[in-house]
Design brief:
The chain is built from 15 helices and two strands. It has about 280 residues and is mostly helical. The chain has a domain of about 180 residues: Orthogonal Bundle (MetI-like fold), CATH 1.10.3720.10. A two-stranded antiparallel ribbon has the order 1-2. α4 crosses α8, α4 packs across α11 and α5 packs across α8. It is globular and about 75 Å long. The mean pLDDT is about 80.
Length: about 280
């Protein structure tokens, strides 16, 4: 039994508080910067308390009003592109991984284990490694500046396939035998038995993959040569591309805050399912 020590607990909580402050402080500065004018943010030192321009800055970036000498791309459009891409990537990864794991576990075919390990080895080939041939294929199909080009190359997931395979291996064989005795075909067994059992796993993976798709930068940077297809991350980068005196940091901070909202909302709304899918052995 571990003996409780008041001083150890105090030190542990102090370390945790310091860690939280280090993580939260940049977010606090983003909130502060989003409430000031560009002139205030150009001062040195920058303000460390909230100003009166918060709603004005949010409105300016959200609807893309002209500000100064720059014509801002609407953040609402960039968030829509990011949202569609993230949802398509998440659902695509889950669908492909479910079907591939189902085939590997429940079908007997030659080189089944070889196929699985071939899928698993692709973990060593992320999009950054194969980006040139992947881009060439997408460009040859004419999918540049399209949602298909932004999402299809990112849909395959060896990690999700592995997780679903491991979960399917824990499903009792009695369920499979009972389904066969009832005359259920493979697709019926998959839809009526495995899918309901996999709901928490799918929810946990959806949260992870949605955030993964939302935060994509390198691939959308190549795929979106037109501003109308800029996702939010690429849009933030384009806002900071000029010389530092020309950057309107108040608008950049406002855009960054808006970019944080959808992932935070997904995590908050699906927190229960996310935790259950990761830690609950019964699923």
């Amino acid at each position: 039994m571990v003996e409780r020590n008041r001083w150890h607990n105090l030190v542990a909580h102090l370390v945790l508080c310091v860690g939280v402050l280090i993580i939260v402080f940049p977010i606090y500065l983003a909130f502060v910067g989003a409430t000031h004018s560009s002139q205030d943010m150009a001062q040195s030192p920058i303000p460390i308390w909230f100003g009166p321009e918060g709603l004005t800055n949010i409105k300016t970036v959200f609807i893309g009003e002209e500000s100064g000498s720059s014509n801002l791309l609407p953040v609402s459009q960039m968030m829509w592109v990011s949202f569609i891409s993230a949802v398509c990537i998440a659902f695509g990864k889950i669908t492909i991984s479910l079907l591939s794991a189902f085939a590997i576990v429940y079908f007997q075919f030659p080189f089944r284990k070889t196929v699985f390990w071939g899928i698993f080895i692709t973990l060593m080939l992320p999009i950054e490694v194969r980006i040139v041939p992947t881009y060439q294929v997408i460009a040859d199909f004419g999918l540049v500046n399209s949602y298909a080009g932004l999402t299809i190359p990112l849909m395959a997931s060896a990690t999700a396939t592995f997780l679903f395979r491991q979960f399917f291996l824990t499903v009792p064989d009695e369920l499979t035998e009972a389904a066969k005795m009832d005359g259920a075909k493979p697709i019926r067994f998959f839809w009526d038995v495995l899918m309901p059992l996999s709901r928490t796993c799918m929810a946990a993976l959806f949260v992870i993959q949605f955030i993964y798709g939302w935060n994509q930068y390198l691939w959308p940077l190549l795929m979106s040569t037109e501003e109308r297809m800029y996702p939010i991350v690429v849009g933030i980068r384009s806002m900071t591309a000029g010389a530092d005196p020309q950057i309107q940091w108040n608008l950049v901070m406002s855009t960054a805050l808006l970019a944080m909202l959808p992932p935070v909302m997904v995590v908050l709304l699906m927190q229960k399912w996310f935790i259950k899918g990761l830690v609950d052995p019964e699923k």
